[in-house]
Amino acid sequence: MPTALITGASRGFGRALAQGLALRDWTLVVDARGREELDEAARELAAVTEVIALAGDVSDPAHRRELADAVARRGGLDVLVNNASHLGPSPQPRLRDYPLEELERVYAVDVFAPLALCRLLLPLLEASDGGGAVVNLSSDAAVEAYPGWGGYGSAKAALDQWGAVLAAEHPGLRVYAFDPGDMRTAMHQQAFPGEDISDRPEPASVVPALLHLLGTRPASGRYRAGDLLLSLAEAAGQAGGPG
């Protein structure tokens, strides 16, 4: 069975993705900062597949080593999903007012931690049959200039860029910046305090886009969930059309 490591898997998109992979017989190593929510997610996953759940902060080097050791004991790694993110202050401040200590925390979690984890796991990913894959959860704020999004957006832009360079340096890997779009998650609600976000799609509705990406393994690059879902819908329509 293939193995995936998913960070930030106790809620939102990370949890929905873990459930989607579990149903496809993937072995999972998952983490999150909140032990109680992670344990709840792990119990659900364990009913379907083999799962190792380790609570901790990805910005902590000792926790990253714990994750790498768990994967090594499992015998290999096929996909690393850097899903854990830190939004920063809520509501999002303009750059002139952004507390620099908070910006350092955003970069520590969203840029440096996933790179450090990836570096630890590169030998296992490169040893994967057919080459492993790294998925970095991105955002449209990485490519669009939204007022108030200079902290989180610039961190995601940096995440996209080191992923692109990694792909150039390791052509045997697939490295994807995956933009899921707006979703009905706790982080999205935090970004828009007091607003009704019930019109945003549930994370589970976005999972098929990433599963398709992992199943087809196109060239490394930046992919939007909306585009992938549209391609899937068009393919389904053609398959169901007149012969």
* Highest-level CATH class: Alpha Beta
Main sheet characteristics: 7 strands, parallel
Topology as H/E string?
EHEHEHEHEHEHHEH
At CATH level 2, the architecture is 3-Layer(aba) Sandwich
Give a written overview of the molecule.
With 243 residues, this protein is α/β, with parallel strands linked by helices. The chain has a single domain (3-239), classed as Rossmann fold (3-Layer(aba) Sandwich), CATH 3.40.50.720. 48% of the residues lie in helices and 14% in strands. It is built from 8 helices and 7 strands. Strands 3-2-1-4-5-6-7 form a 7-stranded parallel beta sheet, with helices on both faces. Helix 5 links the parallel strand 5 and strand 6 (174-179). Helix 3 runs parallel beside helix 4 and helix 7 (207-216) packs across helix 8. The N and C termini lie far apart (36 Å). 41% of the residues are buried.
